[in-house]
Amino acid sequence: MFAQRTWGGTVRQAFPQVADIAYSVVSLGIMGTMLHNWPNSHGYWRQTDVWAYVLLVLVYLPLAVRRRAPLTVLATTAACTLCYMTLAYYHPAVVPGLGLAFYSVAARCPRRVVAKCAAGSLLVLLWGTRLAEPGIGLLSVVFVTVTVAVLWVTGDRSCRLAERGERLAVLSEQLRLEQEEKAQRAVMAERMSIARELHDVVAHHVSAISVQTGLAGYVFTSDPKTARDALETIEGSAHEAMAEMRRMLVVLREGNERAQEGAGDRSASPGLGRLDQLARRVEAAGVPVDVRITGAPFALPPGADLCVYRVIQEALTNVMKHAPTAKASVTVHYDEAAVRVRVTDDGHDTIRVGTTAGPVGHGLIGMRERAGIYGGTVTAGPGPQGGFEVALTIPVARAR
Q1: What DSSP string runs through 302-332?
Q2: Which of 8, 156, 214, 380 has the fewest CB within 10 Å, making it most exposed?
Q3: Per-residue pLDDT tens for 124-162?
Q4: Closest Cα partner for 94 from 104, 107, 106, 82?
C-alpha cells in the first residue's frame, strides 16, 4: 500500500512536466508541418527557410519549462516571435506559442508583472498583424487583443484558484495540528484522571492495610482476637481495592457505559452512598470518624458524587498517615446550589501534605484537580481549633 501511494504521488508530481514537454514537442511538429505545407501563392509571407524553423524551435521548445521559469520563457518566446514576424514568415505558426507563454505568466506571477507582460505580448502580436491578408487587418487586431485579454483573465483566475488551494492546504495543516494537540491534551487529561483514581484507590487501602498489619503484628500473641479482626479488615480492604481496580480496568477497556452495566447497581460504585462503609474502614484502622449529614440530601450526578467521595477518602487517608491517634469528623452539607464538605481532625501533627510546613503531595493536587473539573474548590490547612481541616465545595444545583 505504501509503495502504491508513493508511486501515485510520483506520477502526480511528474505529470505536469511530462505534459509540458509533450505539448512543446507535438506543437513544434504540427506548426513545422503547417509552415512547410501552407500555400503562399500570393507571396504574402517570406518563403520558408532554415531560419524559420530555427526560430520556430526557439519559440516552442522553451515551453517545456514554462511552469518553472514563466518570465524567462515568455521573454525568450516573445523575442523569437518578434524576430520571426520581423522577417515576415507565416505568422500564425508562432501565435499559440506566445499565447501559452503569456498564460503561464498570468497564472503564476503578480498582477503588476502580468500587466507589463500583457502589454509587451500584445505589441508583439500587433506587430504581426501587418502580415495579415488584405481585408482582414482590422479583424486580426481585434482577434489578438481579445486573445491577450482572455489569456490574462483565465490565467489570473487560475492563479487565484491556486492561491486559494494553498490557503486551504495551510488551513488544513493547521487544523490537523490543532486536532493532534487536542488529542494529546485529551490523552494527558485521561492520564491525569487515571493517576488520580489510582492514587485514591491504592493510597487509601494500602494505608489501612499498613495500619492493620502493624496492629496485628503487635498483638499477635497477646491478643489473638484483635489480631484476627485486624486481619479481617486487611482482607476486606484488599478485596475492595481489587474490586475498584477491576472496575477501573473495565472503564479503560470497554468504556464507562459497559463498566456501569457490569458493575450492577449504582450503590456498588464509590460515592456518598458508601460513606458509612468508608468511615467504618477508617475506624477499624484506629481513627474514630464522626459522620454528619446536614441539609436536605439529594442525588448528585455520578461524576460529582465520585469527586466528593474521593476527596473525603483522601482526607481520611491523610489522617491515618499523619495523625493516627486523632479523631476525625466528616460533615456533608446540602444546600440549594452546592454540596459543602468539611473533614477535620484534632491531631497535633502539623506537618501535613499541602501545608506550608510540608511538601505539596499528589493527594492535595488530586483533590484540587478533581474539584476543578466540576467547578469546585478545595482548601486544606490547619483548623481554627487545631488539627487539620480539608474543605470542599462543589456547585451542584438541586433538581426541581
Answers
A1: HHHHHHHHHHHHHHHHHHHHH-TTS-EEEEE
A2: 8
A3: 999 988 887 787 888 889 999 999 999 999 999 988 888
A4: 82
